[in-house]
Amino acid sequence: MSFYLAVGIPPQLVSKLRESLDSQIYIGDVTDFPIGRATTRGRSSWVAYTLQIGSSSASLVGKGAIRRTHNNDKSALLISGVEALLGCENVPSITLLLHWMSGWIQNEEVHATCEERVRIENLPETVETMQSDVRYIVCGNSSSATGSEMTTL
């Protein structure tokens, strides 16, 4: 059992994903798994990847038994990676979804309970309070999103 963080991206970012994220972050394709479908819902051409350090995403979002210390808080790696992805040409947003996985990633049902739009400058605060099974739509500075808006699904 562990936290899994998935990122949904448009197909033109696949080649940029590895170079945008720190080498400590393991990237696994989950596009065809339930967590991937929940992350990219409504964006049929998008792809989804899990982002992990070790066997969990906990240190990227400071969840579970992970205490935030200078040694294990890796949220800055996530934030800088998302900033780099949103800095690519013609990329107005990406999606993030955190899920507490209690079964097999290949078949555990995952359903987003709500959707929240977040501007990139608000991402550090959002990561600190990230909730499980909420689809976060992270928008770049040129996006029309204002502040943070939540929609129940």
Report on this structure.
The structure is a single chain. The protein is of the alpha+beta class and 153 residues long. It has a 7-stranded mixed beta sheet with strand order 2-3-1-4-6-5-7.
Q: Tally of extended strands?
A: 7
What share of the residues does DSSP label as strand, in percent?
25-35%
Return Rg in Å. 14 Å
Structural class determined from secondary elements: alpha+beta
Give the uncertain stretches in residue-range form: none
Q: Indicate the percent of residues in helices.
A: 10-25%
> What topology, given as strand order, has the largest sheet?
2-3-1-4-6-5-7
Largest sheet: 7 strands, mixed
Order of helices and strands: EHEHEHHEEHEE
Shape: globular
The CA-CA distance between the termini, in Å, is 25 Å
